Amino acid sequence: MNFLKRNIFLILILILSVFLRLNYDTFILGYNFDEFAMVSVAKDNISQIFKTIAQIDYHAPLYYLVIHPFVNLINSDLILRLLNIIFSLINVYVFYKIGKLLINKHFGLVLALLLAVNHLQISIANFIKFYCLAFLLFSISIYYLIKFIKKDKNEIKLAITNSFFILSNTLGFLWVFVENLLLYKIKKSKKLLNSFSITFFSFILYLPILFVQTKSAFNSIISAHGDYPSISFLGFFTFLNDYFSPLINYSCNTQTIESIPLLIKSLKSLQEGINFDWVSFISFVLLSLIPVLIGIFGIFKAVKKDKTIDFLLIITSVNILIYLTLIALEITGYLPIYQFSSGLALIIISTFGLYSIKNKKLRAFLISYLVIAQLIITNAYPIEKRENKYKLFGNLDYEISKIDNKTPIMMFDAARFAKHYYKDKNIFDIDFEELEGSHSRKWIELIYGEKIAKNANAKNFKELIKPFIQEKKQSKKLEEFLLKEFIDKIKQKENFILIYNTDGKIFRFSNEEINSLLEMDYSHKKETSTLKYQLNKKDKEFLTQSYLGEIVNSYSIKLIIEVIEKYFKAIKIEQFIQNDNGKYFKHFETSANSININDLMTKSTAGWIFVTYQKQ
Fold first, then answer.
1. What residues contact residue 142 under an 8 Å CB cut-off, 6+ apart?
2. Per residue in 262-302, pLDDT tens?
3. Which end is more exposed in the chain, N or C (fewer Cβ atoms within 10 Å of the end residue's Cβ)?
4. What is the pLDDT of residue 255?
5. Does residue 49 or residue 386 have the better pLDDT?
6. What's the chain's average pLDDT?
C-alpha cells in the first residue's frame, strides 16, 4: 500500500502511456513494406541474419536478434507491436529515472509525462522497426552518462548500453563516438579507456553494415533521398517540431496530422486572395509554433544551469552538425526520425530548462501547454483510423501457401525479403527493388548500358536516359541476365507465377504519360523545405527526381516483362484485395486472353495480382 501511495503518479502516467499507445493500429494485422523486410530477415537463423543485413538490408542487427524468437509465432505481427509498446513504456520509466537523477522525483514525473504523451513516441510504437528499442537503449545510455558525470562511476554500464545502442541504431555510433571524445577531454580518466574499448568492439561488429550503407549511397545516380526536405530554416523547424509538437512531419508512420501543410494552406489562401484560412493558421500557431518556441525557450533556459545538461547540449549540437554534413553529401535524407537521439536529448534539456524557471505559475503553464497540445491531437485524431491497405504483407500468407513449393515465383515487390519470409517457397530474389528511385548504377548499367551508368549524374540523367526510353530500345544485357538468373533455371518447369503488389500502379505510367513527362523541364534538385518552394510549387509543370525515378522504374519493368513473354505466355490472372478486416480474398480470376496485362498494371487498385505463365 505504501508503495502505491509513493508511486501513484508514476503508475498513472504509465497507465496513460498504455492507453495512448494501444489507441493505435495495434490490432490491424499484416505488415507494411518496412515491417515485412524486418520480419523476413529476423526469420533466418542467427548467422544468416548477419549475412543478410550486411548484403541487402544494412540495418543494425540487434532488433533482428531481439524479435527473432517471436517472428514464427501465431499472430506475430500483434506480438511484435506489443513488444514495441513494452519498450516504449519502459522508456517512459527510464525518463522518470533520468529526471529523478538530474533534480528530484517531481522533475522525473514531469519528464516521464512529457514522453508518455509525445505524439512521435505514440505514432512509432506500433511500427515494427528498430526505433522503440533504440529509443529505450539511448535513454538508458543517457541515464548512465549522467551518473558517470555526476558520480564518476558506472562507466562499464555506460559502455555496455552504448554498445547495445550502436548495434540497435543506424549511425548510432556517431553519438557514442562524440560522447566518448568529449568525455575524455573533460575527465581524462583511465576508466574511459576500458569503456571506449567495449564500445569500439561493438563498432567493429557494425562496420560491414556501415560499409554497405556508404557504398550504396555513393553508388547512386539519382539520390535515394532526392525529394526529401532540404537543409533550411523550415527543415530545421520541422526537426524541432517533431519532438515538441503533436503535428508530426515526415514521420515513418504517416497516419498523423502534419504542421507545415497547415501553414502553407493558410498562406496560400492569403496569396490567392481568397478567404483567409484561419482554422489552419491558428492550428499551426497553437499546436506547432508555440510548442516549438516553448521547447527552444526551455533549451536556452537550461544553458549554464547544470554541467551535465551543458555537456548533453554540446554532444547534441555536434551530432546535429555531423548529420547535416551527411545530408549535404547525400549519404542520408533529412528525416527528423533519423535524428531521434538528438531529439530525445533536446526533450530532456528543454524540460530541465522549463523546470528551472523560478516563477511556478509560468513553469506550470509552459509544461502544461506541451502536455495538453499533445493530448488534443491524440484524442481529436485517433490514430486507429489507419487503413488496412497500408499493411499489404503477411495477410497474403494463405494465398501464397496454396502455391506448390516447387513452382517458381518471381515477385516485383519485396522479393529479396520474401525469400526469407516464405522459406519453403521457390522464390527468385532478383533484386528489382533497386530499380525503385533508379539510383543503382548496377541496374542502370544492366538495363540501359555501361555508357549511361558511367556518365550519368543527378543533373544529366534525364537527358541521357530520355533517348533510350523514347526510342523504345531493348536491352541485350537484361535478356542475358534474366536468361542466366531465372529463365534457364526454370526451363524444366511448365509454369511459374509472377506476383505484383498493386498498391498504386506497378507500371506507374502509360507510354503516353512517360513521353509527356520526359518532355517537361527537369528539376534535379528540390528545395522541399523552403517556404518559397512550398508556396510556389507546381509539381505538374516540371519533372522531379522522384517522377524520373518512377519513369525509369516503369520502363525497366516493362522491359523485364517483354523478355519474359518471349519465352512464356500468361494463361491466368488472379487479383486479391482486402476486406474491411484486412483479410485478402480473390476479387477476380480470368484468363490472360480476356484482359490486357499492361492495362491492368496501370490501374490504381490496391491489392495483389498473381499472373500464371506457361512455356510458349
1. 98, 312, 344, 345, 348
2. 888 888 887 777 888 888 888 899 999 999 999 999 999 99
3. N
4. 54
5. 49
6. 81
Higher pLDDT, 339 or 393: 339
Which residue in this structure is represented by grid cell 499492361?
A: 598
Torsion of Cα atoms, 315 then 316 then 319 then 320, to 10° = -150
Q: What is the dihedral of CA 372, 373, 378, 380, to 10 degrees?
A: 100
Residue type at 116 in one-letter notation = A
Looking at residue 162, what is its pLDDT?
A: 92
pLDDT tens-digit readout, 408-461: 988 876 777 888 888 888 888 776 555 543 457 777 888 888 888 888 887 888
310 in Cβ contact with 304 (< 8 Å): yes
Cα-Cα-Cα-Cα dihedral sign, residues 65, 69, 74, 75:
negative
CA distance 140 to 157: 9
Whether the pLDDT of residue 477 is over 80: the answer is yes
Contact 353, 300 (CB under 8 A): yes
Q: How many CA atoms lie within 13 A of 23 on its CB side?
A: 18
Whether the Cβ atoms of residue 238 and residue 229 lie closer than 8 Å to each other: yes
The Cα 95–Cα 363 span in angstroms is 19
Nearest of 516, 508, 507 to residue 542 by alpha carbon: 516
Q: If we measure between CA atoms, which residue out of 238, 252, 251, 239 comes closest to residue 284?
A: 238
Any bridge partners for residue 574, and if so which? 589, 610
pTM confidence score: 0.88
**What CA–CA distance (Å, rounded) separates 403 from 520?**
44
pLDDT at residue 70 above 70? Answer: yes
Q: How confident is the model at residue 143 (pLDDT cuts 50, 70, 90)?
A: very high
Burial of 500 (0-12, 13-18, 19+ CB in 10 A): buried
For residue 146, give the C-alpha cell. Answer: 549522467
Helix, strand, coil percentages in the chain from 3-state DSSP, rounded to 5: 65, 10, 30
Write a three-state SS string for 559-602: HHHHHHHHHEEEEEEEEEEECCCCCEEEEEEECHHHCCHHHHHC
pLDDT digits (tens, 9 = 90+) for 543-584: 777 778 778 877 887 888 888 888 888 888 888 877 666 667
3-state secondary structure of 610: strand
Q: Cβ neighbours of residue 66 under 8 Å, at least 6 residues apart?
A: 83, 133
Give the residue-averaged pLDDT of 70-76: 88
CA Rg value for the chain = 26
119 vs 377: CA distance, rounded Å: 8
pLDDT digits (tens, 9 = 90+) for 24-33: 577 777 787 7
Which residues make Cβ contacts (< 8 Å) with residue 522, sequence separation at least 6?
A: 462, 463, 542, 543, 548
Contacts 24+ apart (CB under 8 A), 256-263: 256/119, 256/123, 256/377, 256/381, 256/383, 257/377, 257/381, 259/284, 259/287, 259/288, 260/234, 260/529, 260/534, 262/288, 263/288
DSSP state of 128: -
Phi, psi of 602 (to 5 degrees): -95, 0
Residues 409 and 497: their CA atoms lie apart, in Å, by 5
Q: Angle at Cα 555 formed by Cα 554 and Cα 556, nearest 5°? A: 95
Q: Angle formed by the axes of helices 233-244 and 290-302, to 10°?
A: 90
